[in-house]
Amino acid sequence: MLHRNPCIASLKAGYLFPEIAKRRREFTASHPETAKPENRVISLGVGNTTEPLPPHINRGLIEGARRLGTAEGYSGYQDEGLPELRERISAVFYRGGFTIDEIFISDGAQCDIGRLQLLFGAGIQAAIQDPSYPVYVDGSVLIGAASAASEGQTGYRGIVYLPCTAENGFFPDLSRLPEHCLIYFCSPNNPTGVVSTREQLTALVKAAHDKNCVIIFDAAYSEYIRDPALPKSIFEIEGAKSCAIEVNSFSKPAGFTGVRLGWTVVPKELKYEGGESVNADWSRVSGTIFNGASNIAQYGGLAALEPEGLREIRELCDFYLGNAALIRESLQKLGISCAGDGRGGNDSPYIWAHFPGRDSWDVFNEILEKCHVITTPGSGFGPAGQSFIRFSSFGHRADMEEACRRLSRLGG
Ligand code: PLP
């Protein structure tokens, strides 16, 4: 028989969400009263969208499927994506600042983050915000760029963790960046919900240039930004085109978590150390191991980027932001501080609540016991997440209101 890929063996067990599901099962089994509607367990734990597709965007998907059934409208492989969708993405998100061959349509941001690592191979070091969205670390392990740390050490060898804490305003100390590393950076951040300012991203781009690094910028939540002073894309920062790649997605703004559609921008200015084009390599990699996103999904994406679709995206994000505001207010009433408090509003669907001195799993258990509410323990996103809890605003409004009422039980 064949041996297992040692990179897979190096992965830490997918511990967080299975463990949460297990605790939920055990809790409901030992608390029969949770079968009653008023005592049911409500989840503020997952980052999955819950509201139906808005009508105009949905019609775009239906129309896309209809077209494929006609001789004039049929299309097969689309390589890097429908040209009109790439043009529209450039116009809507980048003020036309990219040609269509710099925009690659994908089946989602997570999938592209995993594939992008093929460009840099196993020999690189990765620098990752701590806490962070798990695919940056796990993808680095799978490609062999990171491996299990020695006994008694946390994290992985090959990964430089950049703590983002209340003390540093959830923006990392860039002096810790090693030379020649691949930086993963997410803003608005999952899990902290914090959006980096223009000054902070300017410092990030400068550090990437100074240290010969490449940034993979994850902007999956950019449409949640309401403060016009905050940048929605790394490419709003001068100099980013020669040091950054950006991934983005229709999942969270348009409810496409199950439809699957995203995009990646690889500027032609971005070059490897040896001067070769990263854009040309990405085209090669995409054409080799990915044959393009579903054409139906792409017609849905086109509808989403028409004026009516953009209005629906704004309304959908506003809905989840409304949920986030309810959660933040409930926690504030209890004197629990959250990342971004006092910054003047919510720009993210996540609330990152601080319980100083406490273990994240203990707080998770307390909230489950007292409120019958599922959350996500911050320590599951990295060592610096200890003592934090992530509340997700993806849920129906009635569930949010009920969960927020119950959170008052945490007081006293
Ligand atoms: N990036 C971040 C930060 C996310 O939180 C998520 C999903 O939760 C993704 C990417 C994945 O997006 P997609 O559905 O486009 O794969």
**Major β-sheet strand ordering:** 2-10-9-8-7-3-6
Distance between the first and last residues' Cα: 59 Å
**What is the CATH superfamily label of the largest domain?**
Type I PLP-dependent aspartate aminotransferase-like (Major domain)
CATH class descriptor of the largest domain: Alpha Beta
Provide the succession of SSEs.
Answer: HHEHHEHEHEEEEHEEHEHHHEHEEEH
Supply the CATH architecture of the largest domain: 3-Layer(aba) Sandwich
Number of structural units classed as domains = 2
Unique ligands? pyridoxal-5'-phosphate
Would you tell me which CATH topology of the largest domain applies?
Aspartate Aminotransferase, domain 2
* Mean pLDDT score: 95
The proportion of strand residues reads 5-15%
Structural class: alpha/beta
The largest sheet, given as strand count, sense and whether it forms a barrel, is: 7 strands, mixed
Large-scale geometry? globular
Treating each run of at least 4 consecutive H or I residues as one helix, how many helices?
13
Number of strands: 14
The residue ranges in which pLDDT falls below 50 over 5 or more consecutive positions are: none
The amount of helix comes to: 25-40%
